[in-house]
Amino acid sequence: MTLGFVGTGHITVAMVEGLCSAPLLDERIVVSPRNATNAAMLAKRFANVAVAADNQSVVDASDIVFLAVRPPVASKIVGGLRFRPEQTVISLVALHPREEMRALTQPAAVLVRAVPLPSAARRLGPIAYFPRNDDVEALLARIGTPVAAPDEAAFHRLWSLTGLISPFAALIEEWQGWAEAGGVGHEAAEQYVRAFIHCLAVMAQNLPPAELARRAATPGGINEQALRILREAGGLAPFRQALDSVFARMNTPKPR
Ligand SMILES: NC(=O)c1ccc[n+]([C@@H]2O[C@H](COP(=O)([O-])OP(=O)(O)OC[C@H]3O[C@@H](n4cnc5c(N)ncnc54)[C@H](OP(=O)(O)O)[C@@H]3O)[C@@H](O)[C@H]2O)c1
């Protein structure tokens, strides 16, 4: 089986790194020549990666084709390619609805949209995709946790959550800054906060959030106190506002 990538930018590099570090990889991977530096770097690092002469050569060589170019140029690039009926195409392109990408990739049998994270390089993180497809799910499971969305609006809703990476980082920075301002040294504050976040992430992976909150919130304890104050100050509502705003953008007509 050969996997092809049209567009060798950040997300392709992350996915190829993840796929090539997964056990038992027996696929060949073909990447497009742009970006030239990334393509050469991947081919040098991984024996099963080759750089194609052009985008059409990627499609011609592949059973599964990932589309990983930027939204403003996607229609023009993809529309100029010829696909085969037995191919599966996985579009990572934001803002372009499935029906549009499906029309552009006719007669390919399958068109799935997916949103991996850069953490795919470490084979970590959720990968929302739509519509459900067992073969695609098995492939994506090698570099993360695939989550099938029931419809395209739900897919956009899950994709919107990926906009919370920077807010999350800012939140951690806020906690660390607060500790430092109170006299905890930079190194100790950073060490503590990082270990704390790691522990919260592992616990959240293993418990539903309501149960995690319930277990931590001893009546009259400091977790109950902190959550009450945040709720009273409306401290959680802005997250919904931010997500609503990102979601609205996902659903606005895309640049052509
Ligand atoms: N980054 C993420 O975390 C992420 C996650 C999920 C989905 N996505 C989606 O994946 C797509 C790519 O994102 P990205 O972050 O990887 O962007 P990126 O780093 O800008 O990569 C896009 C690549 O496309 C190449 N390109 C430009 N014109 C091309 C052409 N005619 N033929 C082939 N390749 C061409 C560019 O090459 P040059 O450098 O030579 O211009 C660039 O390396 C976007 O649609 C984005 O919405 C990204």
Beta fraction: 5-15%
What's the structural domain tally? Answer: 2
Which class best fits the helix and strand makeup? alpha/beta
Overall geometric form: elongated
Structure overview:
The protein has 256 residues and is α/β, with parallel strands linked by helices. The protein folds into two domains: 2-148, NAD(P)-binding Rossmann-like Domain (Rossmann fold, 3-Layer(aba) Sandwich); 164-250, ProC C-terminal domain-like (ProC C-terminal domain-like fold, Orthogonal Bundle). It is 52% helix and 14% strand. It contains twelve helices and eight strands. It has helices at residues 10-21, 36-45, 55-61, 71-79, 98-104, 134-140, 152-161, 165-181, 186-206, 209-216, 222-232, 237-250, and strands spanning 2-6, 28-31, 49-51, 64-67, 88-91, 110-115, 126-130, 145-148. The protein has an eight-stranded mixed β-sheet with strand order 3-2-1-4-5-6-7-8, sandwiched between helices. β7 (126-130), α6 (134-140) and β8 (145-148) form a beta-alpha-beta unit. α7 (152-161) crosses α12 and α8 (165-181) packs across α9 (186-206). The mean pLDDT is 95. It binds NADP nicotinamide-adenine-dinucleotide phosphate. NADP nicotinamide-adenine-dinucleotide phosphate (NAP) is lined by residues 6-12, 32, 34-35, 55, 68-71, 73, 77, 92-94, 115-118.
Keywords:
256 residues; alpha/beta; Rossmann fold; ProC C-terminal domain-like fold; 2 domains; 8-stranded mixed beta sheet; 12 helices; 8 strands; binds NADP nicotinamide-adenine-dinucleotide phosphate
